[in-house]
Amino acid sequence: MSKTLNVRISPQADALDRFEAAWHLSTGRAAPPALRVLSFPDLPGLLKALSPARWEMLQRLRAEGPLSVFALARRLGRDYKNVHTDVARFVEMGLVAKRDDGLVEVPWEAVKMEMRL
Q1: Which of 26, 64, 67, 74 has the most CB atoms around its CB within 10 Å?
Q2: Phi, psi values for residue 84, rounded to 5°
Q3: What is the residue-wise DSSP string for 38-57?
Q4: What is the topology classification, in CATH, of domain 4-115?
């Protein structure tokens, strides 16, 4: 599995085009490698989801490895409830993974951003 998450600002139609292209590629041939894409409809949506505090949380979690939400909040000097909410949202989005032992981690080595005009 690729360790890169592609984050894009693109309309919903682009996601449908990517799905259609992958469908055509996979018919009669070997399946294309999985491409992990997280799309936002516009720049304000991206900036709301990945605020500077949330980006710092991702960087810290990636650098320090798997942590409990409590330990992450302590290391960031942030309120536990807010960090818990951010982590839960990131798990839903696929930016953070929750392990069987309850610890959370960033499974990505890189996050690539693409913004189309």
Answers
A1: 67
A2: -60, -45
A3: EEESSHHHHHHHT-HHHHHH
A4: Arc Repressor Mutant, subunit A (1.10.10)
